[in-house]
Please model this.
Amino acid sequence: MRRPLFLLMTLLTLGLVLAACSGGAGSSSGEVRTVAVRMSDDMRYDPTEFDFFVGERVRFEVTNAGALRHELFIGDVVAHEEHAAEMAEGARPTMGHDDASGVSVEAGATESLEYTFSEAGALLAGCHEPGHYEAGMVADITVHP
Model:
């Protein structure tokens, strides 16, 4: 009787180990992880830091709890500089809801942004409405291998 129980426990343990090594949160299984983000007129995101894995698809449910329009734009430092320049030049007076890297959210509204993290490294989420980024409306994103 001990042998079948041992065999069953061994198989269960092996299954758990294989599941843990099969990609987990970063797998490309088609699953989408939903993350709630709150933006406020205090020029802050909540949460202020995010951790994801390469290949992970994330649906950001972005709620603007303030009275001003805010945005959530994802990119590295260079992408943020380019986006800020476009916003300052008036080329993008509002970011629009069809941008692959960000979403603009009116006061009191909630919008979704689906984003797939393709490489490991450090990214930022930021708001480039006039003065918001400079006031600290930035969050750190770490993408793990």
Notes: Confidence is low (pLDDT under 50) at residues 6-27. The longest strand covers residues 32-40. The helical segments are 2-21, 77-89. The CA atoms of residues 63 and 110 lie 4 Å apart.
